[in-house]
Design a protein that fits this description.
mainly beta
């Protein structure tokens, strides 16, 4: 079975940092672009960041540029999102998703696999 297991969320003060990880299993991870998408309370999904297969290309939403860093380790089927300078606007559930293409989408239907998320709460 395909699994995308996100972890690393929690409660952090404004200005703090968190490191999210997503461990994949059940598919050829190295052949897939990996993305992070978040959902703030009461709002829709927001695409955050994508790394292509091989990790040679990384892409960020404007809200994440300069603060977030996405990386992947194909040896352990893991994609990581390092988040710095967090603010209350970053609060939400962060999910990882996979697709064979390199896309920047918030639409669940655009991804082959979508995992359960991890909660990030930033207090002001």
């Amino acid at each position: 079975d395909v699994q995308l297991q996100a972890s690393g969320g929690g409660l952090v003060q404004s200005g703090g940092s968190l490191r999210l990880s997503c461990i994949a299993s059940g598919f050829a991870f190295s052949n897939y672009g990996m993305s992070w998408i978040r959902q703030a309370p009461g709002k829709g999904f927001e695409w955050v960041s994508t790394t292509n297969s091989g990790g040679t290309g990384t892409y960020y939403a404007e809200s994440a540029k300069g603060r977030f860093t996405i990386s992947r380790d194909d040896a352990i089927n893991t994609v990581t999102l390092r988040m710095n300078s967090l603010g209350p606007e970053d609060t939400g559930v962060y999910s990882c998703a996979a697709t064979r293409r390199t896309i920047r989408s918030r639409e669940r239907s655009d991804y082959d696999y979508w995992g359960q998320g991890t909660q990030v709460t930033v207090s002001s």
